Amino acid sequence: MILPIVAYGSPILRKIASDITPDYADLKKLIDDMWETMYNSNGVGLAAPQINKDIRLFVMDTMQIFENQEEDEKDEFPDAPGYKGVFINAQIITLDGAKWSYNEGCLSIPKIREDITRNEGVTLQFMDEKFETKIQTFNGITARVILHEYDHIEGKLFIDHISPLKKTLMKRKLEDISKGKIKMDYRMVFSK
Prior knowledge:
Blueprint: E1 5-6, H1 27-40, E2 45-47, E3 57-61, H2 63-67, E4 84-106, E5 109-127, E6 133-139, H3 140-153, H4 164-169, H5 171-178, E7 188-189
Parallel strand pairs: 1-7
Antiparallel strand pairs: 2-3, 3-4, 4-5, 5-6
């Protein structure tokens, strides 16, 4: 089932999410719904707070980035062919590598994109959908998407990484999003 995406301004997007246990109600259906919602809205990642659940869960698929690359973009990222997975109760162990800038957007903050600087690598401890614990290192665009989604379960948004001046300049756009004064081709819910 395609779920509505929570828009900027909703308090849940600023809440630190809680860990879950294997007996979390209807977890498999929730994960399936998150995949369907993410693909329906042309996203590469989706965190539970974005569908109004304050739990430490996100899904991401960077394989589609590599599948849709133009020929001249083939060597742009070092992490081909990408990664598709479910991340439950994720915790960052280390941030690695140089910082690099990339133009990011967010399904909860539509039609706003900004260059965001993040580390090129991250080592994460998390559980997959079978609740098997993993410790894995990611880099390139996959690390970036993971860090973006990880921010969501920590109550942060990508715009928190931009300068106060840039944030001030986009204030009206952000207010319009929070009030629902925006047209999108996917379902959204607004707090005000």
